[in-house]
Amino acid sequence: MSKKHHLAMNVNGDDYEFLCETHQSLLDVLRDELMLTGTKEGCATGDCGACSVTLDGRLACSCLVLAVECEGAKIGTIEGMARGDVLHPLQRNFLELNGLQCGICTPGILIAARSLLERNPDPSETEIRYWLAGNLCRCTGYDKIIRSVQAAAKEMRGA
Amino acid sequence: MSELRYEAPASLKAAAALLAKEKGLAKILAGGTDVIVQMETDLIEPELLVDIKKIAVLRKITAEKGGFRIGAAVSGMEMMEHAALCKSWPGVLDGVKLIGSIQVKARATVAGNLCNGSPAADSVPPMITAGAVARIVGPKKTREVPVEEIPLSPGKTNLAKGEIIESFFLPKRPKNSGDAYERFTPRTEMDIAVVGVAINLTLDADGVCTAARVCLGAVAPTVIVSKECAAALVGTKVDQAALDKLAAAASAACRPIDDKRGTIEFRTKVAGVLARRVAVKALERARRIA
Q1: Is B189 on the interface with A (CB under 8 A)?
Q2: Pairing of strands B164-170, B133-137
């Protein structure tokens, strides 16, 4: 029986304490220990972005971070995006403009897009495409994702 | 399988001591974007991870002697957000910006890119042409080593057991200097360089190149610093004749392998094409950055 680490972190504004082993990624802990299964596992090697979260305000792949590195960290996941029953403008525009099909990549893309719009409320199409280059989608062909982000950005700017 | 242990010491001395006394495989954990992938894919099975991100001095970019000292645990995104560094060393930042996605750059470090030992690492050629010097702390002594002396072969560096890169020093820029890095990849993002070229040059008041450093990536077992390429530029106004000489020297310097990403013939040709392009970009920047 290997030694477990006793850790604390804040996820979407809620404080959590949990036990984990050294090899467990932040993604493993979110899904298997905290039961926050909105964050998806795709490749587990940092290529696909399905597991994107914010870690102390920065966009990161939760599969490329060990949970032990996150003591005291503030994590943002898809579960913290809607306010109760009110969807975030990104979520609503993805639904209205068909920015998703199977949906596996969607939580990661929404987190990545929110992170972009926090830094740059009026990104060009090229800026959106480069920012989302680390988020793969095998269904949409990306165009509808880009349109959804553009529409949400416009709405959030009040334009 | 033996148990994987994790330590996050608060000082460099403690980190070096932990690495030095470990009998099994010990890995330094900074961004983790290579180490965690290698663990996940069973390429390595370390017994100890030493997280260096709790060591405050490793997390900072500071001004020093008119240049910059970049801590080994500074992420790519932190470098990209440092306005003065970006202005002074745009070519170094060309390389940093090409390391993986935004997600990867939020974690990945230049020290990790170097110590991973890939000849295709994007930040290594421009760090070399910038004349970056690594400060390496070991259990017994600290040494200062130019970045080009660190890679030995794919996956191997000249760091001894217990040694850690503390920081890199990027020197003060002479007037009229510019640097640039470009790579060839089939895709524009999220890909590995088939060929990479970095050039750093300085002009005099008449626009004549007085100093140049040229480094080629992904065309040999390690990155190549080419004196012949530099010699093609020095003493010229980086005109067409100089660029022709540079391109020929770059192609001649290549000792590439054939693999699925590029043939020997292709890599050799592209090294010349890229060298020409990168020289023009560095020249434009040298003229702009007074």
Answers
A1: yes
A2: antiparallel
